[in-house]
Write a structure and sequence with these properties.
single chain, mainly alpha, 52% helix, flat
Length: 167
């Protein structure tokens, strides 16, 4: 197998799937001996693919993780030419983060948090904790999907592939 930028993108996608699912690429807990990529594809759109330790997180965080999962699925597309570049991946991940931070700012401002606190906390990994006064919750109902950033420019869906192995 030749190592290329596109095979590196595939490998990155597998690592992200490992982190989000808590499963190894070939995991004995995955039924039918499926590769983690195929297992996630069969269950896509379901919070069931997330590591059980992550499922109890606030809805906004679960939605963010599912958006990142969508980016990972773009990375593991069976057709190398259909995979994004790492530059595209970074842009999609930044957009996911930006959307969450913007939502948190608006949500907190609507709930009465000081605007300065919302503006100063944009670099935090847990904006909702810093932005919102104690007792305010934050849930993200955004319809944003990171996969739409990339797939809107592509004719094929990133979920059409069935092979779990890179080219």
């Amino acid at each position: 197998m030749k190592i290329t930028e596109k095979s590196d993108v595939y490998s990155y996608g597998v690592v992200v799937l490992e982190v989000l699912t808590g499963k190894q690429p070939i995991d004995p807990t995955i039924p039918d001996g499926l590769h983690v990529v195929d297992w996630v594809r069969r269950r896509k759109g379901s919070g069931e693919v997330l590591d059980p330790g992550l499922r109890g997180r606030p809805d906004s965080e679960v939605q963010e993780m599912l958006q990142v999962l969508g980016v990972a699925l773009l990375c593991v597309n069976a057709a190398p030419d259909e995979r994004p570049t790492m530059k595209d991946v970074a842009a999609m991940l930044k957009e996911i983060r930006h959307e969450r931070e913007e939502y948190a700012k608006v949500d907190c401002l609507l709930k009465g948090a000081a605007p300065a606190a919302a503006v100063d906390a944009t670099t935090s990994t847990s904006c909702s904790a810093l932005l919102c006064p104690r007792g305010h919750s934050n849930s993200n109902n955004s319809s944003f999907s990171a996969s739409s950033i990339y797939s809107s420019a592509r004719a094929k869906s990133p979920f059409e592939s069935t092979s779990a192995y890179p080219s």
